[in-house]
Amino acid sequence: MIALYIHWPFCKSKCPYCDFNSHVRASIDEARWRAALLRDLEYYAGLTRGRAIGSIFFGGGTPSLMSAKTVGAVLERAAALWPLEPDVEITLEANPTSVESGRFREFRSAGVNRVSLGVQALEDDALRFLGRGHDAAEAVAALEVARRTFARFSFDLIYARPGQTVASWEQELDRAISLAGEHLSVYQLTIEAGTAFAPAHARGDFILPDEDTQAALYETTLARLEAAGLPAYEISNHARPGAECRHNLVYWRYGDYVGAGPGAHGRLTLGAARVATRQYRAPETWLDAVERVGHGGEEPTALTPREQRDELLMMGLRLVEGISRARLRERLGLDLETALDPGRVAPLVEAGFLELDEKHLAATAAGRQRLNAVLSRLIG
Ligand code: SF4
Asked: What is the per-residue DSSP string for 55-121?
């Protein structure tokens, strides 16, 4: 089974914290974009013939700015090119503005069966700071429309914002829990190079909570959501058991996925090789390439066994379930002791950042909180 990711690279405005491949354009020729996405799908169907699709994810950018006609055309073409699993999960990311939630029924008619809303905060001051185009009341209203329209919905929150305390976050989380369905994504605010927040933060325009407060906010998130029946299954993702995002699990379990659209990445097993696919990031470069040569990226490149091992660890240790020995053998043909240097693993286990047993290797909650540091000791 494979997963299919479709990237829609446009947003109404650029949020100051965002380093995604998202762009603002005064206008776009949607029919041209639709035709290019369909052609890109055909290219990937040629590489993956005979595989079935278990999930489709429209991400961005803001895919809820696409018309339902484009979403429907992509889904129709995907169903014509690949067999779809009967319970295929089809997610669309959406911003919780009234305009976009007004189109949820059309998206559902087009085939979408799950939405993920970029709520980000339930306080108006925080939403203004994050440069969002909605206020808290609009977000709550959009969540209600999502609940009425889709069997499955999720929303995102951002914590560790300036001035946030554990007490204020607990209140906001409780409100979020009362609005939640089966799934919540809760991300820590980080300052990424190239965003509008990077120079503002460097100038001291705002101050993030210190490390201890960040750790306390993370631990509060884990405990509060777990108590509400939404335990973490990944660093930032929480779900009722069985309601995890199947699409994202494919990435974290290092499965195969097609990435179509500007900047999208894919990982595919082609014969004996595991390859990476990368699409051109700049929207117009991608569009031009698809129209000229039928797809918008470089040729797939084979990953070395070492690259595969590193990627599998980087993805798998994000998950609470970690990496099973069986998966490692299936993916890399190795057992854990051969894949990793036991001299690097042991101190991380001893320090309480990793767990290793006869079934799996996993990061503990403390390990997941500082996963980059753990990974650099493990494989750096
Ligand atoms: S709406 Fe989402 S993708 Fe677009 S700029 Fe904001 S955070 Fe980035």
From this structure: EEEEEES-GGGS-HHHHHHHHHHHHHHSPEEEEEEEEEEE---HHHHTTHHHHHHHT--EEEEEEE-
**119 ligand 1 Cβ < 6 A:** no
For ligand 1, the distance from its centroid to the CA atom of residue 182, given in whole angstroms, is 23
Does the C-beta of 15 come closer than 6 Å to ligand 1?
A: yes
58 Cα to the center of ligand 1, angstroms: 14
| Beta bridge pairs of residue 90 | 56
Residue 101: its pLDDT value, please?
86
Whether pTM > 0.85 for this model: the answer is yes
The closest alpha carbon to 318, from 269, 361, 278, belongs to 361
Instruction: Give me the average pLDDT of each 10-residue run along the chain (380 residues).
Output: 97 96 96 98 95 98 96 98 98 92 95 98 98 96 96 97 97 98 97 98 97 96 98 98 98 97 97 96 98 94 96 97 94 90 96 96 96 95
CB 118 less than 6 A from any atom of ligand 1: yes
Query: Given this model, what pLDDT does residue 310 score?
Result: 96
For residue 274, CA distances in Å to 52, 206, 376 come to 18, 44, 23
pLDDT for 380: 82
59 lines ligand 1 (CB under 6 A): no
Task: Supply the residue whose CA is at minimum distance from atom 2 of ligand 1.
Answer: 61
Tell me if 61 CB under 6 Å of ligand 1: yes
Indicate if ligand 1 lies below 6 Å from the C-beta of 12: no
